[in-house]
Write a structure and sequence with these properties.
Number of helices: 13
Shape: elongated
Strand order of the largest sheet: 3-4-5-8-6
Strand content: 15-25%
Helix content: 25-40%
Radius of gyration: 24 Å
Number of strands: 14
Amino acid sequence: MAAVHCLRGEPFVSPVSVDLPQETTPHLLPVQQAAPLGADAALAMGCCQPGDHLDLTRDLPIWVLAERGPRGQDHPPLQLLPGAGVGVHAESGKICASNFALELLRRNLEPLLPPQAAVRLTLVFPTGARLAERTSNRAFGVVDGLALLGMGARVQPSAAPDQLAAARQRLARVMDIRPHDPVVLVLGANGWDLARRHGLPEAALVKVGNWIGPLLVEAAERHCRHVLLWGYHGKLLKLAGGIFHTHHHIADGRAAVLTAFAGLEGVTGSELEQLHRAPTVEAALNHLRHSNPHLSSRLEARLLAEAEQQARAYVARHSECIPAVGVVVFDGHRQVRGAGPHGRCLLNRLRPPDGDSLARELDENVPRG
């Protein structure tokens, strides 16, 4: 919006008034600067300041190049293009943006467009490519940077108490319908989609976000006998270190947990240092898989078994009923990477008759826990 105001020849003003859907009062967002680049282009820069509730990546720098052109059949009034650090669909190369994000742009920008002119906006996230390495974007076929995937203006954090309440309600319904069957606690939408793709019954799935510990205890209190934890290995690695609320603002420790167990398996010196300094758990494990496959197999099996043991120990501290807990992990490529000893047993109980593909995927990718 600041770039388009500048393109119209208006003076730079910050903050910018943004109209949010279903809200009567505009929201004021700060912008760092905007300036014309000749007669038909302008550049604006900002840095995300989401406050407590806006669904923005905190401190993410944003640049927008606005260019004026003729309006016509081949030139829509408003065009959004991906610049450096902005996620695109791997197959089409088009910018990856949710319908909500595009509608929000149209809602606020179309009233500002110059008469009879089209505006092309090139969006740049200078740090987007690096930050995207820490996400599961690739699992959705998004490459090159961060995507605009928001489904609403306000964030619904996975650490919010409301989400815990919703998960507890879902768990109660699952237990009512399937009182003697295993429950699958799924971390995130990506895990949910992958579980369904592998044929796990949707009636057994409970989306837990970061509230792993409280949901395990809830399952125990409801006398659930078997619980399968299904999630991204960056999250489930924390369980091996005894961390059962996995939101990064509360506790991280992934590098410390990974290197501690790597050290127990005999990794030393520069190789241990390289694991500790890897940007993500996936990058660290991939490096070890290529440099020392046998050691990698032992380490991953140990982590999976430890995660299962720690989960049972956590429940034992809070409840007299202790379910058998299994763990299955997948990576950013949506590949199931492994299962703990009990995780494999639960998969055999949960998977459909044609679920041999999942067993093959486990056998091909990662050794048993």
